[in-house]
């Protein structure tokens, strides 16, 4: 329930509504509008390639070596974004904070980015779509990307003064997610309404389980 409702203070209760899909309470790190269905990729690590393996030390002896390292990182990041583009990936959903070089090449190649998703949000998206996070720097980087999710729409959503991300997924299960936009004059009222609704949904779940048995 926590991932499927958004509380919006400062509006009357009558402004509350139910939206298809899910609402992520953060803004796009990069937004590239696109029409029609697109493919999304889940990632749990920074897409900026590391110069060394974990635990190893990388020593730079000169300014030239440092600049060469930056060029290698940029070229590797650009190659990854080209690979995503060739696999029709238009949306990155990341639990990790991505660096500026990643955002730059994402915008250049028409890939929207939403970062810093919680583990609960990532788990919910995986449940809806049936896909697992993608490992960008595996041994075979040129293989076809199969861990993509079908997205029916992806757009900004303004809730009073807060910019959010509104996404619709093609669900692989019977569960068709919808998000409750719960409005109220102040946070305390919203919290009371949210708690009451969650208790009502819990009661309905218990009722239907009893009927099934």
From TrEMBL:
Gene Ontology biological-process annotations: chaperone-mediated protein complex assembly
InterPro entries in the cross-refs: BBS10, GroEL-like_apical_dom_sf, TCP-1-like_intermed_sf
Domain of life: Eukaryota
SUPFAM superfamilies for the chain: GroEL apical domain-like
Protein name, entry field: BBS10 protein
Organism encoding this protein: Alaudala cheleensis (Asian short-toed lark)
Gene from which the chain derives: Bbs10
């Amino acid at each position: 329930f926590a991932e499927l409702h958004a509380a919006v203070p400062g509006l009357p209760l009558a402004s509350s509504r139910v939206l298809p899909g899910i609402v992520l309470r953060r803004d796009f790190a990069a937004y590239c509008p696109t029409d029609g269905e697109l493919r999304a990729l889940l990632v749990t690590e920074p897409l900026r390639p590391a110069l060394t393996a974990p635990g190893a030390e990388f020593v730079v002896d000169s300014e030239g070596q440092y600049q060469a390292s930056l060029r290698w990182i940029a070229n590797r990041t650009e190659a990854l974004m080209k690979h995503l583009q060739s696999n029709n990936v238009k949306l990155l959903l990341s639990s990790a904070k991505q660096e500026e070089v990643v955002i730059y090449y994402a915008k250049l190649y028409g890939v929207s980015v939403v970062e810093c998703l919680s583990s609960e949000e990532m788990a919910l998206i995986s449940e809806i779509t049936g896909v697992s996070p993608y490992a960008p720097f595996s041994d075979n980087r040129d293989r076809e990307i199969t861990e993509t999710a079908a997205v029916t729409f992806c757009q900004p959503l303004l809730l009073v003064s807060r910019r959010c991300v509104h996404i619709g997924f093609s669900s692989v299960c019977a569960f068709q997610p919808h998000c409750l936009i719960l409005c109220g004059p102040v946070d305390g009222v919203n919290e009371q309404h949210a708690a009451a609704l969650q208790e009502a949904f819990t009661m309905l779940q218990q009722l239907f389980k009893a009927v099934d048995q």
